[in-house]
């Protein structure tokens, strides 16, 4: 697929240890996600996330992930952690997502029943979103499953930034980027040794594979 950008952005999600945050920054990732979704095994408390955020290098963004989280809880995280971006995975609408005064990404469920998958059908309900995350869960289900969806269902030539997510790993991210040419990639399970515990070698290989996919094709 043709690319409109020179570099695929990388977001590592579900980090729970300062050492993992520091290594991710050394490897050159663009954003780190902290999970506040109630059902997640990677969930961190706001005070813990505040410490993790302090381990971030300059110019690396902190992303706070929610799934149908009450607005007062989101506000508390915004106040204590100070994320650069919010990421919503549930049935939140555009008004809900915008009310916190922080730019937001909306996760779009790419699993389950296939309907109209044009850009307007996927993104049209979220004019206030800074970008999107195309994840493998079905509507109403949680993400972070480690399962990929059919990348062929991503419409070509998206005009708004979209991160490809769901089941990415060092073993498939090169092919995913070459097939979809996403604005960015987002990974959690594929760089873990256990839920919330990232594996240094898998993190390093993931970044190397993204960089390899970004090289111009040889003649
Ligand atoms: O990580 C979680 O526990 C989680 C919980 C609820 C909603 C989303 C969640 N994670 C997001 O899902 C994508 C894909 O994860 P994976 O790579 O397939 O494990 C991940 O990037 C998070 O943004």
TrEMBL record:
Its EC number is 5.3.1.24. Pfam families: PRAI. The keyword Zinc does not apply. It is an enzyme of class 5 (isomerase). It comes from the Bacteria. The keyword Signal does not apply. Keywords: Amino-acid biosynthesis, Aromatic amino acid biosynthesis, Isomerase, Tryptophan biosynthesis. It catalyses: N-(5-phospho-beta-D-ribosyl)anthranilate = 1-(2-carboxyphenylamino)-1-deoxy-D-ribulose 5-phosphate. GO terms for molecular function: phosphoribosylanthranilate isomerase activity. Pathway: Amino-acid biosynthesis; L-tryptophan biosynthesis; L-tryptophan from chorismate: step 3/5. Coiled coil: none annotated. Residues 11-208 form the N-(5'phosphoribosyl) anthranilate isomerase (PRAI) domain. One of its GO terms (biological process) is L-tryptophan biosynthetic process. Gene3D superfamilies: Aldolase class I (3.20.20.70). Belongs to the TrpF family. NCBIfam families: PRK01222.1-2, PRK01222.1-4. This is N-(5'-phosphoribosyl)anthranilate isomerase.
